[in-house]
Design brief:
seven-stranded mixed β-sheet, alpha+beta, 24% helix
């Protein structure tokens, strides 16, 4: 020590404390910053980057997730403090998602040096639209033939392997990546929020979406089915440049607010951190092959006419009956809850078997889950089927003619002839829905049906509209005839 002056005891204590503070303040000076001096994961873990509270149960709030996903798009400044962040995106623009490995030393050693699979999907944020997701996406497919809701910008992406986009799942992409290596994926969202709202609620009233990423590791069969991590964020998609204008508008509105009002809102962050969530329930399809051509075994009602038959690649139809059985184990019951969108209550029913859940009364589930979800859970447990708004019965004219000819050749009387009709159930009462249902019945693509006509007085062909379908009598019967469209490979359907 270079101090020579002898001080009193009290001053020595003060001097000792000052020297220790001074030494501590200089302890980091002179150290070189190497390439491994810090990691992006540590920086993003700082409180300034914590935008949202985790929705996980209390016992896991303080745990650092094994992965973190960062969407390189700014959050809106017009979001209140305790609300989830909202990010605006431009339609068709490429946005980077950085895939970060947050594992501690020794955590998940089974994936070290190995690949994991991540599935990115764009889904509805509103629960009302989640219930009708399949119908909403099929309607979008009909209006935007050949387009996808979500795409990967592969040339700009880094570190992804074997990217895939299933042609039947327009809102989903998947790829493999190695957590220990730098990985970033660029995505493009091609739908806009106002495409799923009524016309009177357009503009900024467009529905919010969720971008969700689910990551899986390999099982013993070398299939990526073991869930590791899921996270999501809320977004709205605007037409090109629309997101920039909306961000600017929100920023100007916040600048005009009083200082005490500004304190009630979150600041705008340069990036969006996806927060942990429950895994998205997988919907089983008839064929999950990633190739564009799908095979089908439903050949009982093909389109066969004297003027030719269509050459098509049939699309799989989702027809899943998912009733909970009394013999279901607690693990099976948990999977059933996830598939049917009851994941927020899965912890409450951790030890419930299928028989336990089925014994619950309507009052029990309402008390546990609340009125809205309780009624929905009770109806799902009881397997109650909602009666369709309209039922029509159809028979193919060529099939009817062949059956009648066979009867006559066998010497049977004509009045003993019977024909097989198929039931079509309609909920939305629109021409698009009828087209899709007839296409499913014929096992063809809806794009191959150009128009649907109803045979009117004197044999005239009247174009079927939404209003006409809404005026159909319930359980009305039609004979279907097909007519080749000379201008393309499509067909016209005639209801007789």
């Amino acid at each position: 020590m270079a101090w020579a002056l002898k001080l009193p005891l009290s001053d020595e204590v003060i001097e000792s404390g000052l020297v220790q503070d001074f030494d501590a303040s200089l302890s980091g000076i002179g150290q070189e910053l190497g390439a491994g001096a810090y990691s992006m994961s540590d920086v993003l873990a700082l409180p300034i980057f914590k935008q949202e509270e985790s929705n996980l149960p209390p016992d896991t709030d303080n745990e650092i997730p094994p992965f973190q996903y960062v969407l390189c798009a700014a959050t809106s400044p017009a979001v209140k403090l305790h609300d989830e962040t909202l990010t605006y995106l431009n339609q068709g623009q490429s946005y980077e998602i950085i895939m970060l490995d947050n594992r501690k030393i020794g955590e998940l050693p089974e994936i070290s040096g190995k690949m994991v699979k991540s599935i990115i999907r764009v889904v509805f944020h509103d629960r009302r639209l989640q219930y009708t997701e399949h119908q909403q996406l099929e309607g979008w497919r009909w209006n935007r033939p050949g387009d996808r809701i979500l795409d990967l910008d592969i040339p700009m992406s880094v570190g992804i392997i074997d990217p895939r986009a299933n042609p039947t799942q327009l809102n989903t992409v998947e790829f493999l990546w190695e957590p220990s290596k730098r990985t970033s994926v660029f995505i493009q969202v091609h739908c806009i929020s106002t495409e799923f709202t009524m016309r009177k609620h357009g503009g900024e009233k467009g529905v919010p979406f969720r971008i969700q990423i689910d990551t899986f590791k390999e099982n013993e069969s070398n299939e990526y089915t073991e869930h590791l991590h899921s996270a999501s964020c809320q977004v709205k998609v605007f037409k090109p440049k629309g997101a920039d204008r909306k961000q600017k508008t929100d920023r100007e509105k916040m600048e005009k607010r009083a200082p005490q009002e500004k304190e009630k809102y979150q600041p705008s962050y340069e990036t969006t951190i996806l927060t942990e969530c429950s895994p998205w329930p997988e919907v089983p399809y008839v064929n999950n092959s990633p190739s564009p051509g799908f095979s089908s075994t439903q050949n009982s009602f093909p389109v066969v006419e004297g003027n030719g038959s269509p050459i098509h690649q049939p699309e799989p139809v989702v027809q899943v009956v998912d009733n909970l059985l009394p013999a279901a184990t607690p693990q099976d019951a948990q999977q059933w809850l996830l598939r049917n969108r009851f994941s927020p209550f899965s912890r409450l029913f951790t030890n419930f078997s299928g028989a336990d859940l089925l014994k619950l009364t309507r009052e029990d589930v309402i008390q546990i889950c609340g009125p809205a979800d309780g009624i929905r859970l009770f109806n799902a447990l009881k397997g109650r089927v909602v009666r369709p708004r309209l039922t029509i019965y159809v028979c193919q004219e060529s099939q009817q003619a062949r059956d009648q000819q066979t009867k006559h050749e066998n010497g049977d009387a004509a009045n003993n002839t019977f024909f097989i009709y198929h039931a079509i159930y309609l909920e939305e009462l629109t021409a698009i829905e009828l087209t899709e249902k007839i296409a499913q019945l014929f096992n063809i693509s809806p794009r191959q049906i150009n128009q649907i006509f109803k045979q009117g007085p004197t044999g005239i062909h009247v174009l079927v509209s939404d209003e006409m379908i809404q005026n159909f009598q319930d359980e009305v019967c039609f004979v279907l005839d097909t007519m080749k469209d000379d201008s393309n490979d499509g067909y016209h359907i005639i209801l007789k």
